[in-house]
Fold this sequence. Notes:
alpha+beta; two-stranded antiparallel ribbon; 5 helices; 41% strand
Amino acid sequence: MFRYKDLTLIAFVILFCESSSKSAPDYIKPCPGLKSECLKKNIQETIPHFVKGIPSLGINSTDPLFGDPVHLDLAGGLKIEFNDGVIKGFRKCVVEHVKYEGLEAQLNLRCSLSLKGKYKATGRVLIFAINGEGDARIKTPNVAFSCKITFEDVTRDGVIYREIKDYKASYSYDDKVNFQFTNLFKGNPELSDTVLTFINENWKQVLDEFGKPITDTIVSMVFNIIKKFFHSIPRDELYVS
């Protein structure tokens, strides 16, 4: 019988290599019997370490998380480009529920995140046709993530790795989200401020229309980092007999 080391389950936030095998970080702690309360406690304690990155594995930081340029074609013909994106807050995520059984895992957690960067946008947001370029900041103070992960055992060069085969993530925004965009209408600061106020007053409708592809992109970035961890560490380094 194996006992799973808890960093494995951090892959489920969110809230994602080298072919040669590596050793797991020292701060991973085992949970006898995979009991949920133990896993919940140990994952919570591990998150602040993992989000700093693991240079020996070539794994980047997830807090801050530096995003690649993002190009989105959204509802209503809205086109958005994000550049120099920085996402902060994963280190303070709260683990609410963990369950691991067989090759399936479930993790629920709650995070307060902030995103800032440069943006360009053309198209329609609600009733307004915008044409803007400037600084962007989005604050999401209470996002609930539910993640279901499926693993598979993969053998490379005689070594077994337990890798992420698939994941499904859902989320809800449980407190008011705040948007700050400069220069939504080029050369017209008064109209920009008016539209920004309208967007913040109607934040739920804005997220209903545009939130999913943006959040999906962030979740994918995080899972790509965590997948690299599982690709690098042999299964026997994550299980203790």
